[in-house]
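We modelled the chain as a single entity of 345 amino acids. Its sequence is:
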Amino acid sequence: MSLVDELKSAVTPRAALLVVGVFALQLLFITSYVGALHDPKPTDVPFGVVAPQQAATVLVNRLEQLPGDPLDPRTVATADEARDQILNREIDGALVVDPRGRTDTLLVASGGGTVLSSTLENMFVRLEAANQRTVRTVDVAPASPQDFDGLSAFYLVVGWCVGGYICAAILAISAGSRPANRERAVIRLGVLALYAALGGLGGAVIVGPILGALPGSVAALWGLGTLVVFAVGAATLALQSVFGIVGIGLAILLIVVAGNPSAGGAFPLPMLPPFWKAIGPYLPPGAGTWAARSIAYFKGNDMTASMVILSVWAIVGAAVTLVMSSLKRGPETEPIADEVGETRA
């Protein structure tokens, strides 16, 4: 057999296309992660100003004119209201001006991302020094000492996402990449739901009671984890039911390549470039990370949008999987099933 024949036998056209797809995925991975994370800087950070009315107006105007638009300032009536808005995740920080002294108070929430709170602190130390004033920092929602850089929630959600798409991929390719009938699709979704419940519980117990990395309700984290795993798994099953084995690559593209760097994990959303900042909250890693931090540090506030987004991923993924299974593709039309049959023959 000639070298050309050996090459054709070793690398089929379908395998060659898959290799090209993997190559493209690799380049997209590098572009996405480096593009999102190589130059973090705050942009339009929601920020409150508490000061007497005239001074507040002057200070807000001055903060709006800072180079690069790092802040989106607005006046807040009282320090207590500013604290409430931070805990409700409406703003990420606030400056409380002391009209009788020269030391102001900066309110931050490192539980939402230590990099952002540190950036705000450094920024206002410089700004206040330029006006011969000093600033003291009060962390109203501090990250756990065992939660280095506030990354535990992000890594927890990444683990749940990985489990979701790998479980779905295994369920689908074990007997062909497309569900042959509705019964098989229902079984796969049922197994995925059971796996999601166990995976959600396992993650919540590990980061809570075992490692002490995250405070907050274990039951709430369990429920969130179950939804994250099932949403990602159902979306993967749906993509596989439509595109076959290529759907695994598309799931990785959505969840890993686009979702992880835009999740606000390493750097909170206000520090990401506009594209990643825009897409992050609508992908499972971003929605899950936001909700996990809300549970751990913000008394469960401002989770509704994230939970709705995850629910939509779960419902649409399951629905597409069931609809595609109703087309009743037989095993003979499934690429992986064909290859298995040829190997056995």
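As a brief sanity check on the tokenised model: The radius of gyration is 24 Å. The chain has 13 helices and five strands.
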